[in-house]
Specification:
By secondary structure, the protein is mainly β. The chain has one domain: 2-Layer Sandwich (60s Ribosomal Protein L30, Chain: A), CATH 3.30.1330.80. Helices cover 10% and strands 46% of the residues. The chain has 3 helices and 9 strands; from the N terminus they run E-H-E-E-H-H-E-E-E-E-E-E. Strands 1, 2, 3, 4, 5, 6, 7, 8 and 9 form a 9-stranded mixed β-sheet that branches. The radius of gyration is 17 Å and the shape is globular. The two termini are 23 Å apart.
């Protein structure tokens, strides 16, 4: 099968400082809406977080399920993240996420619609596939970013009197559209010319 590929062009790089208490995934979705990023690259997200929710492969394989662990890591945490940005694409309104997937949302019910399980909340909404590396005093973990991952308050006593130092850099791409497609066949990336 021929690989699907098209050329795009980086139009601009957008830098945004996030606020203490922001949900990182939702903040990036909001930035994509505000700056009209339909396709792009999360070049970097770096800073300190008070908690992170992620999906990762388990330490030991388990038969009979998707083999994904959901982990909630309490802070203080240093993180670095990168990923691809596109649009959620559900062309058939009768298609919904499978019940077994919706039951595996993890420690909380923050996810809405297709949610961070799919990286988007509905048709033509921002999509983010983000890998995040999280370091605490006792461990380093890598996985897929999920909703409920909160930016840290940046002072020793938890008062957010100063602006956060947590920043993201997003490259806005033109000429190509990445669609995180969920249809009757399943879930996949579709890449089309813009």
């Amino acid at each position: 099968m021929k690989r699907q590929g098209f050329r795009g062009k980086i139009e601009e790089v957008i830098y945004v400082r996030l606020n203490a208490g922001d949900d990182l995934l939702r903040a990036i979705w909001d930035i994509c809406k505000e700056y009209d990023v339909k396709t792009g690259i999360l070049l970097d997200a770096t800073g300190s977080m008070q908690s992170v929710r992620l999906q990762r492969f388990p330490h030991e394989p388990r038969p009979g399920n998707t083999g994904i662990d959901y982990v909630e890591i309490p802070g203080h945490l240093e993180v670095s993240a990168h990923g691809i940005i596109g649009m959620g694409w559900v062309p058939d309104k009768s298609v919904t996420a499978p019940p077994e997937l919706m039951q595996r949302r993890g420690p909380s019910e923050l996810d809405t619609g297709f949610g961070s399980m799919a990286g988007f909340v509905g048709h033509q909404t921002p999509y983010l596939h983000c890998h995040i590396t999280v370091s605490s005093a006792s461990q380093t973990v890598c996985g897929h970013l999920m909703e409920g991952s909160l930016i840290s308050k940046n002072t020793w006593n938890g008062e957010a009197k100063l602006p956060s130092h947590f920043s993201v850099a997003i490259a806005k791409v033109s000429g190509v559209i990445l669609k995180a497609t969920w249809d009757k066949e399943g879930y996949y990336h579709d890449i089309v010319p813009a």
